[in-house]
């Protein structure tokens, strides 16, 4: 059993072995609040988020709150996010905060400290970041993560239609920009056992990959499963044999079954079973 002092890669590997390969988003956007019969207000934000934590955080390996849906309520929304993070971690789930930060210098350091320093009320196990100010701009996040045994997931190949104009662009050496990001992270993960701390985000609906995904020695976060059109077969097609470190991420496909906690658990269990092949 891993402990909080273990590296993120070690904790993630243990969680995937114990709980199966699934990350569930906590995305309290207005459509889902309405679907649960809730208003679009702070009280409903808290009810939605803590219900998700109660239903899922003792079952799934990773939960992924989307920070933006909390931030839109200002400081009171951030307070709900803090309580949601605490509830999920207390129940044994790893928390990956979807913040997609990307900045330089002392600003990037401050973002990293806000989310990865255990003294922060927003402290989580890992965050998402954007490398498109140059991967080197994220060095402060890598440094803070390494100091505190946390993880960083870097956007690599995203499913949004605008992504390819940057991610598929070719460098002078012929590699795609996405490939250069993956290669640089693979170098950072070299030699890590059982898994490196630095991962890449690859959408389940990207179509054909323009990058070699086989040598990362770190986790792949794969959003877009279920309601967004991604499937287990897409995961097989995109990742081939490199499946053990793949973390499929589903939000609406699971969350639409709320607010009943039993129905949420059953939906998550079905998704875990669907991706059981990843850890065989």
UniProtKB/TrEMBL annotation:
Keywords attached to this entry: Decarboxylase, Lyase, Pyrimidine biosynthesis
From which domain of life does this come? Bacteria
Q: Reply yes or no: does the keyword Lyase apply.
A: yes
Task: Please provide an example of a Pfam family that matches this protein in its UniProt record.
Answer: OMPdecase
What does the record give as the reaction this protein catalyses?
orotidine 5'-phosphate + H(+) = UMP + CO2
Presence of keyword Lyase: yes
Q: Which GO terms describe its molecular function?
A: orotidine-5'-phosphate decarboxylase activity
> Which PROSITE patterns would you find in this protein's record?
OMPDECASE
| EC number, as in UniProt | 4.1.1.23
Residues annotated as the enzyme's active site: 100
Q: Which SMART domains match?
A: OMPdecase
As recorded in UniProt, coiled-coil segments are none
Q: Which residues form the Orotidine 5'-phosphate decarboxylase domain?
A: 21-267
Q: In which pathway does it act?
A: Pyrimidine metabolism; UMP biosynthesis via de novo pathway; UMP from orotate: step 2/2
Query: What family does the database annotate?
Result: Belongs to the OMP decarboxylase family. Type 2 subfamily.
- Please identify the protein, giving its name as recorded: Orotidine 5'-phosphate decarboxylase
């Amino acid at each position: 059993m891993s402990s909080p002092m273990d590296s993120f890669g070690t904790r993630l590997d243990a969680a995937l072995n114990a709980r199966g390969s699934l990350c569930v988003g906590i995305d309290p956007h207005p459509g889902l609040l309405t679907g649960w019969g809730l208003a679009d207000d702070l009280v409903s934000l808290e009810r939605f988020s803590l219900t998700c934590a109660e239903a899922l955080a003792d079952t799934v390996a990773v939960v992924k709150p989307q920070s933006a849906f909390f931030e839109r309520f200002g400081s009171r929304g951030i307070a709900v996010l803090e309580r949601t993070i605490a509830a999920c971690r207390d129940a044994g789930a790893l928390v990956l905060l979807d913040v997609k930060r990307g900045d330089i210098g002392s600003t990037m350091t401050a973002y990293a400290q806000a989310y990865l320093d255990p003294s922060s009320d927003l402290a989580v196990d890992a965050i998402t970041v954007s490398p498109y100010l140059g991967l080197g701009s994220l060095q402060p996040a890598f440094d803070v993560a390494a100091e505190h045994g946390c993880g960083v997931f870097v956007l690599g190949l995203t499913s949004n239609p605008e992504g390819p104009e940057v991610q598929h662009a070719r460098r002078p050496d012929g590699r795609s920009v996405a490939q250069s990001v993956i290669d640089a992270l693979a170098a950072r993960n070299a030699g890590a056992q059982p898994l490196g701390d630095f991962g890449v985000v690859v959408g389940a609906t990207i179509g054909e990959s323009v990058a070699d995904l086989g040598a990362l020695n770190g986790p792949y976060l794969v959003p877009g499963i279920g309601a967004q059109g991604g499937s287990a077969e897409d995961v097989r097609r995109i990742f081939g044999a490199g499946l053990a470190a793949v973390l499929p991420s589903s939000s609406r496909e699971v969350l639409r079954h709320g607010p009943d906690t039993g129905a949420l658990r059953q939906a998550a269990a079905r998704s875990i079973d669907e991706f059981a092949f990843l850890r065989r």
